[in-house]
Amino acid sequence: MFLSPSSPAATRFYAAIKAGSGLKAASRLVGIHHSVGDRLLRIAYLERRRAGLSMIDAAADLGYRPSRATVWEAHLEKDDRHHLSVDAAVEDRFWAAFIDGTHPSAAAKNVGVSRTTASRWVQARFSRLRDQGATVRRAKTELRLTEKRALEFEERRPANHRRTARGETAAQRTAVAAASQPARRRSAALSPAGEPDQVRAAPTRLLGPDARRAEQR
């Protein structure tokens, strides 16, 4: 299973980890296998290390102390992209050809990716330009888009932002729920229903006159 670190499920997973859930508990919470959760943690940890944080600071910022941090350190100099995603060098070659004036479809064919992948790259760059303050006209000109295509990309941006906002809201709810679970378990453990059964007193034996006299002796 390939799960993007920026997907809503991954966002909820990271929030649960930050709230104190363990790897397996957080994975179950968002419905993914713990091996997928482990990969998400590795990616997030390495991103922080590559940004200049120490091992301790990276773990603290992530809210998780990985027992395999020393193993993950070996990936610092490697490209950690999933095998189903396109290699970063391929996308770089695509943009190099695009900047030289090659049509996106031709550039995609030259680097061996589909037109759908190329369109996704162009749309993502359009969205980044707009988020950085560029006008629609400027983004359209820079990416050599038709008027119709630029309007399509612009119309999709609010939906993408709403999807991101929903993911963030769900992540907050997940974090609150994950944080409250230990408290609920402690409360249940202290409630009368959760108390262990008291040791019952031995039943009183009813003795006849002869038995009572024998005990008195």
Describe this structure in words.
The protein is mainly alpha-helical. It has helices at 8-18, 23-30, 34-50, 55-62, 69-72, 88-99, 104-111, 115-131, 136-142, 147-190, 209-216. The chain is globular, with a radius of gyration of 30 Å. The N and C termini lie far apart (81 Å).
What distinguishing features does this structure have?
single chain; 217 residues; mainly alpha; 11 helices
Oligomeric status: single chain
Mean pLDDT: 76
Number of strands: 0
The backbone outline, from C-alpha atoms, is: globular
Question: How much of the polypeptide forms β-strand, as a percent range?
Answer: under 5%
Low-confidence stretches: 194-202
Describe the sheet with the most strands.
Answer: none
Number of helices: 11
Which class do the helix and strand fractions yield? mainly alpha
How large is the radius of gyration?
Answer: 30 Å
Distance between the termini: 81 Å
Order of helices and strands: HHHHHHHHHHH
What is the helical fraction, as a range of percent? 55-70%
In short:
66% of the residues lie in helices and 0% in strands. The chain has 217 residues and is mainly α.
Write the layout of secondary structure elements.
Blueprint: H1 8-18, H2 23-30, H3 34-50, H4 55-62, H5 69-72, H6 88-99, H7 104-111, H8 115-131, H9 136-142, H10 147-190, H11 209-216
Helix pairs in contact: 1-2, 1-10, 2-3, 3-4, 6-7, 7-8, 9-10
